[in-house]
Write a structure and sequence with these properties.
The chain is mostly helical. It has a 3-stranded antiparallel beta sheet with strand order 1-2-3. The termini are far apart.
Length: 139
């Protein structure tokens, strides 16, 4: 029996202490926080890229509309209406990644497509427009 008690005591000494477990949990929490911050940064960049692609797609759809109808569209809804819509996706194609509707502005024979960007307000610094090319950001 003495041998059995020695083996149990030795096994108990080889286990982790509560402090050691808390340190490991704290380290994992810190690493998780860092990972989440990196992922959310990439999500924001992805939304901007998607909005830029949406603006280009709407710009091209307006050009197709002009070719087919010999006039510019007066609203974006004209691009998704009818039996043979120019732009697939229905009304959902008219909203940016932040669920704000793209805007159409016609200046003479020029069409400008705008997204309000992340803040949802037009006329701010984060707007995405078809007539403005943004400089590539250095990473």
């Amino acid at each position: 029996m003495n041998n059995k008690e020695n083996k149990l005591a030795e096994a108990a000494r080889r286990g982790f202490t509560l402090v050691e477990l808390l340190v490991v949990v704290a380290i994992l929490g810190i690493l998780g926080t860092i990972a989440i911050q990196n992922v959310t940064g990439h999500i924001a960049k992805t939304r901007i890229t998607a909005a830029e692609a949406g603006v280009r797609a709407l710009q091209e759809a307006c050009a197709s509309y002009y070719i087919q109808h010999k006039k510019l569209p007066t609203s974006l809804e004209q691009l998704v209406e009818g039996d043979d819509p120019i732009l697939e996706g229905g009304d959902g194609a008219l909203y940016d990644p932040w669920d704000t509707k793209y805007e159409l502005e016609v200046k003479g024979k020029k069409v400008i497509i705008k997204s309000a960007g992340e803040d949802g307000s037009m006329g701010t610094e984060d707007d995405i427009r078809s007539d403005v090319k943004k400089k590539a950001e250095k990473e």
